[in-house]
Amino acid sequence: MQSIRKAIAYSSAGRYLRLVIGLATSIVTARMLSPEEIGTFAIASSVVMIMAEFRILGANAYIVRLPTVGVEEIRSAYGLTILVSWGMGAVLAAAAWPLGNFFDTEGLVGVFLLLSVSFIFAPYISIPDALMTRKYKFREITAINITSAIVQLAAVVLFIKMGLSFYSLALSQLCGVLIKCSLGLFFTREIKVYAPRLVGIKSIARLGIFVSVGHVIRKAQTTFPDMLIGKLGNPAQVGLFSRGLGFTVFSSSLVLSGILPVALPYLSSVNNKGQDVGSAYRHAMQLITGVSWPILAVASVASLPAIRLMFGDQWDQAAPVASVAAFWAMFRAAHVLAPNALIAVGKEGSMLTKEVIVFVAFLLVTTFGYIANGIIGVAYAFVCSGAIDFLISSWFVRSKIGLNFLTYCMAMARSVVLAVICWGAAKLLSFFVPFDQVPPFVIFLYMCALMPVVWLGSIFMIGHPLKKQIMIVFRHVLARN
Question: Can you state the percent helix, strand and coil of the chain, rounding each to 5?
Fold first, then answer.
């Protein structure tokens, strides 16, 4: 358990630093580029992010899940990822002109061509990352991600200053990819396995198809709206929606980004030892929702000052999207570990079935939402799809890992109470300090002073399971001192 805590500590610290740098990048680009320019890049990146999930075809999950990994398994993983990733990069480059014509947006062709280059380096990023993940080398992974993020931030500022507009975003992303590739190979240099082979790729591809399609479907829930709005609306609407949804995703990632990389190796280890995956899943979700739900509840109230503080007044129309989407993120966080749990117990087929059902419902409600009420209609459609996701995920978790629905809901009850208390405190503050009139930095200071006290006090008052973890950390700090 100590190794798990250490891995989560490194992963969380690195992800949080990366989130801060990513936030700084978003702030810089939002203030240096217009909604139309950012929306143009968002349309292209939404297409590429979906394709990017296929380029490694689950080879990283295959390596992480195996009890032991040898030279031949690594070579097979390289063989499959090179075959798929390079092929998809070529397809994307060839499709740049048809895609540009489809969305009828000037400059998209060049962005697609630049983003296609990253597919060349994907195998030599994903395989080293998987090798480090299975050994819980999150300190090295953190170093890679932070260095890449810093380089990307510096590059985007330089390129925008050079007058490259939305091309700056694609060029800086490519710089980050080159850094990840170089450092990933450096930190796994003792393995010295780079030559691909095509023998033995069938078992990897079988897992990869399920994992990659599942990832694509989950990713599409944040990227499909950009394509939908880009086709039916205009780049400015895409920019506003992506910034509103991006704020919600950022708020959720404050907790989840540090935990998710550790989830699959942890749950796989529990399953390999013959322990109860359902019990481990329930306990992990209690801790995750105890942190993520209060953050999202507060974000739903304070979206306007937060967006003004980060991006400026020109993005005010993104605030209603963020407020509504926060409830979608809460539904989604309720079973955020479900895909990892199903993969860990060898039920990746069930994971894919679940994602397909949810995505079909998502496509229907989001399309109807935009036609009915524009981008805010899409936000409400997100909430509807989130509720569907929660119910379907609960059924699969019950049937595949034996976690009873009522037992799980009862376990989440204290997290619900904790989120309601924090939401009420933020709402009460908005009555005394009007969020639309007071400078956003002042509201930020009020939030920083009030919300941690409310959250911690509520944890001890209602006896949330986080109380035990906080006390463990507190005793550990006292013992070290």
Answer: 85, 0, 15
